[in-house]
């Protein structure tokens, strides 16, 4: 009887070890395949996003091409022309198994070229297209099944995927919508506009359809209203993160944590990038990804819990990066190449050192 009790944990540990080995081999096979596909490619990445629920990676390119990767099947890349020019904004809808893409680039006389495209997230099949948009921007899946938020210039639109149509009147802002976030643990929606304003709103039912209702607004900076907000993300129901930079060249980028209940700033993070041109995150991960320059091109990962920022070299001023936590790696996409980073291992190293002498470590 005692032997049996001892064997069960041993078998469990063996199974966990085998699973860990399998995950390690899968991760290595994937990033090697990914790096080989990006080698010497003459098509700079414009955006990238990973969905941990679907376990799919999407990469938008300057040419308008879109790539879909399943990291668990390293050779399963699907690539196609999503837009005539730069694919700039991506959002997965895991519950519907879809990917939405937007491009602000297009011929001024071709309104059909400027609009949201909705794709099957695994096959890349075009399911629907929205046209006659002005400057399509950020996209996000709401917590309501089949309901998506789509920015178009200074408007925020509601898209019902089941009906394949936009709903109700658009919500207008003073500035262009640059950032969009939906809380995973609440029905809060955060919007950042080009006039440096953060708005908190909710979807409410009106005449049988969802409608947007603003509850709070706050400038991201009292000193510089002309702020470009590159990203907003909810860490949890009480914490909202913003990444922004004033339009004036000499103003440093800012990463601020806000109380999501009253939009009061809680803390600012110590980052070192001199300029930011892109920001992103992976849902459920307490990390913010910044791309920009520190003399040369850099990617900076900000641990939103510890406050530590990890800085990585890049060979261009406009790199992009995505975090794949279930594989334990991140990917930095550069000009004509890509490389993996083991950011979770660095997090453990930092916690073991527990040094407060510097808040930035560079790879």
Task: Describe the 3D structure.
This is WD40 repeat domain-containing protein. Mean pLDDT is 86; it is low at 1-22 and 348-359. This protein is globular. A hairpin with a 5-residue loop joins β9 (136-141) and β10. It has helices at residues 2-38, 343-353; strands spanning 45-51, 56-61, 65-69, 78-81, 89-93, 98-102, 117-120, 126-129, 136-141, 147-152, 155-160, 165-172, 177-182, 188-193, 197-206, 209-219, 227-236, 239-246, 254-259, 264-268, 275-280, 287-294, 296-303, 309-313, 320-324, 329-334, 337-341, 360-362. It starts with a helix and ends with a strand. The strands form seven sheets. Strands 21-22-23-24-28 form a five-stranded mixed β-sheet, with no helix packed on it. With 363 residues, it is mainly beta. It has a domain at 1-38 and 280-363.
What is the CA-CA span between the terminal residues? Answer: 52 Å
How many DSSP E strands? 28
- What best-fitting shape do the alpha-carbon axes yield? globular
Q: Helix amount, in percent?
A: 10-25%
Nearest-angstrom radius of gyration?
21 Å
H/I helix tally: 2
Strand order of the largest sheet: 21-22-23-24-28
Beta-strand percent range:
over 45%
Low-confidence stretches: 1-22, 348-359
Average pLDDT, to the nearest integer? 86
Order of helices and strands: HEEEEEEEEEEEEEEEEEEEEEEEEEEEHE
Q: What does the main sheet amount to?
A: 5 strands, mixed
Protein name: WD40 repeat domain-containing protein
